[in-house]
Automatic annotation (TrEMBL):
This is Nitrate ABC transporter substrate-binding protein. GO terms for cellular component: periplasmic space. Keywords: Signal. SUPFAM superfamilies: Periplasmic binding protein-like II.
Amino acid sequence: MRYIKNSAIIVLAIAALLTVTGCRESRTIPMSDGRPQITIMVGGLEKVIYLPAMLTKQLGFFEKNDIDVSLLGEQSGANAETALLTGDVQAVVGFYDHTVDLQAKDQCLTSVVQFADVPGEVELVAKADAGAIKSVRDLRGRNLGVTSFGSSTDFLTQALTGIEGMTTKDYTRVRAGAGQTFIAGMNHNGIDAGMTTDPTVAQMVNSGEAEILVDMRTEAGTRAALGGLYPATSLYMRCQTVESHPDIVRKLAAAFVQTLQWIKQHTPEEIAAKMPPQYANAGKDLYVQSIRDSIGMFNGDGLMKAEGAQNVLNILGKYSRNVAPVRDRIELDKTYTTKFVEEALRTNQ
């Protein structure tokens, strides 16, 4: 009887601890002078695909919407989602597909602003291997760079090769990171090809260090590569946070929608001029080019297209080992919402 009683106490204690941990970030969003203090982790602050995060701060739109936001950089979307789940940050600017992947693990994340309908990613081939690698089918047996295992570049690599009948047994995935670590991996025979974004793409192509194999910076390129749209860059949060703090989500959505609209009304040169100068450390002209090459990926309104969400599920349902076994029970309507963006668009008219 004593053993049963003690076991019951332990079970109750664990349940209480889980409850407190699960609610930590939704109950304790700090306030200062009545303004919410939000921390957003970004899957690579210097990447053009995530440019709206820093641009919103630089344009003062967070402040204009009565909210204080701190941005933290993290090269891997998989690590960013972990920080969100543990309550270390309140939101992530990263790829929408993480919301689907996490639902397969019984975690609820939802995209509240969808910045792009396409990935903005490029599969590059090292100069030394460009003669032998002319199509995705030529990636068989090669070392392929991804940001990290479980990242969106990992999902997309599996999708591209899977369409050609390959599995991860047919090539070697290598954690290549992004930026200089990716460049070093490609230039020192660590990877034969790999998936990355601007400004790394512009830098390596301009220098002759790499060639483009697959370009998913445009709708046409994405449809050709993946058979449809693949909504990527988004602001996603824990479902519990969205439900508990709709006013804060509303402020964030308004700020980002204003930025997406601003992007459509300005040139790459004007956009580059608003960004921190260190983002152009490889040269101002190169940075402007990288923005020009990728800026068309942003949708201008922040709305999710249902077609795109469905295609993400179709792809992950085939190639993600987390999603594939449970794809029939994935509820897409829980992975994104358009209501906050729709409110912002009505207000900004």
